[in-house]
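Ligand-bound model needed. uridine-diphosphate-N-acetylglucosamine.
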Amino acid sequence: MCEYVIEGGKRLFGECSVQGAKNSALPILAAALLCDGKSVIYNCPDLLDVDATANILRHLGCSVSRNGHTVSVDSSEAMGNEIPEPLMREMRSSVIFLGAILAKNRKVRLSTPGGCEIGLRPIDLHLDAMRRLGAQITEEYGHIECTAPDGLKGTNITLSFPSVGATENIIIAASTAKGTTTVINAAREPEISDLADFLNGCGAKISGAGQGTVVIEGVKKLTGSSHSVITDRIVAATYMAATAITGGKVRLVNIIPAHLGPMIDLFEETGCKIKTDCRSVCIEAPSQLKSVKMIRTMPYPGFPTDIQAPVGAMLTKAKGTSVIIETIFENRFKYIGELIRFGAKVRVDGRMAVIEGVPALHGAKVKTSDLRGGAALIIAGLGAEGETVITDIKHIERGYESPEKTLSGLSGSIRRIDKNGSEESD
Ligand code: UD1
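Prediction:
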């Protein structure tokens, strides 16, 4: 059992480098299963979700090793086609293995990933797409079995919603299908383009990734290659929100500012000054943040649902009233119950949160229930007066690599305490 202890009220300043993107690394590692031989993935963040992905790959017969931020996957001996329930439960996005295993072994058996803290998260779009590619699917007692004895066949697939995971599963599965697959209304997130770049480096023929229509010409085989994962735009924006709530000034390096578009607009609306160059963003916060009229989460290039909670925490200290509408996941305001313990004034009505800024937050003992909601609690703790203790931090560690080290490097006061042992770092 570990927790973060934060002494709030310290202005963040300095420079920090941003980790590789979790949401790129996970599908790329899953796609490595489909590539003959060895793939080497650079800039892979050191996270619990990446460990869980590596464990699934090992279970399927891959040899996986990590050296710092470099993960190597050799899939030469990978004949497995079943992911047991405990591994599926560890990480909801393990459904990303569906397309890779099906394409490689023509058969896959998974347990249904089920709902999670942020919503029901059905996988109907993934399954419909696999059916369109020629798979036969049976679902019973919480398990899904997909078979394609004659291999997958290219086709046109129109997604009713631009699901990130479904787009990734289709791209992976269609890479070695017979013929051409066209995905209409595909997700356009930068992580989709990153996946396509990796697969194209392995011999795939994918065009249009990052746009609404993606065309995948199936190839006979993919061969492992090396790839460097893009930086994490959500982590970058989280550290920007942390800087803003403390009235600080921070330069984030090793990032792709173009991926931060709508988030930069929002920070400017709160009165922050933003300067970008090709690989960095500098944020300088005013002494008093301003509220924002309305944030509506949307698929990329709209405002990301993943940054809604960190920004929600930041706005609790902004002058005036801000409104957030969450359109992507139905249960993504759980963190707000915890924000109220800091003295925040927030009302939630269905998918809308109304935040009335308060002059000060005070430290609190709070509990994390999901990844981004956990990041929001760190931000509130940094912006609060006095001590904050955050428990259940494993949720945060699914997506943020040593946030205590990054924030301490920016003069924040945050320690990670191992309740069974001693203090680990600060
Ligand atoms: C990915 C990201 C997650 C991000 C989300 C939206 C990864 C590992 N996770 O999740 O961090 O918050 O995109 O940007 O990349 N839906 C269905 N049926 C489906 C699939 C999705 O109804 O078959 C719904 C979901 O319940 C949700 C919405 O579509 O309401 C968006 O989901 P999706 O884009 O698929 O998100 P994920 O790929 O799960």
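The radius of gyration is 21 Å.
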